[in-house]
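Subject: design request, 80 residues
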């Protein structure tokens, strides 16, 4: 009870009639641009992480006891 080739062809013809070829082409190019932008963003993110190994440090204000780096104090204000 799956889709056969004729079902898929009929489905594609209905989609083309409803949306038109110009709108489908625009949707395809927009989707392709979004995927390309996402891939470029992912590539830029890895390059920037490799270039700057030193993470910005934050100073905690208002605490008198030292806090481990793994601990996150939600109420503390940070200076950057």
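Subject: RE: design request

Done. Sequence follows.
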């Amino acid at each position: 009870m799956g889709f056969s080739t004729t079902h898929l062809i009929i489905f594609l013809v209905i989609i083309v009639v409803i949306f038109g070829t110009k709108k489908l082409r625009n949707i395809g190019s927009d989707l392709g641009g979004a995927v390309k932008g996402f891939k470029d963003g992912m590539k830029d993110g890895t390059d920037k992480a490799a270039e700057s190994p030193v993470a910005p440090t934050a100073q905690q204000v208002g605490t008198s006891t030292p806090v481990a780096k793994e601990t996150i104090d939600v109420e503390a204000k940070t200076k950057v």
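The chain has two helices and two strands.
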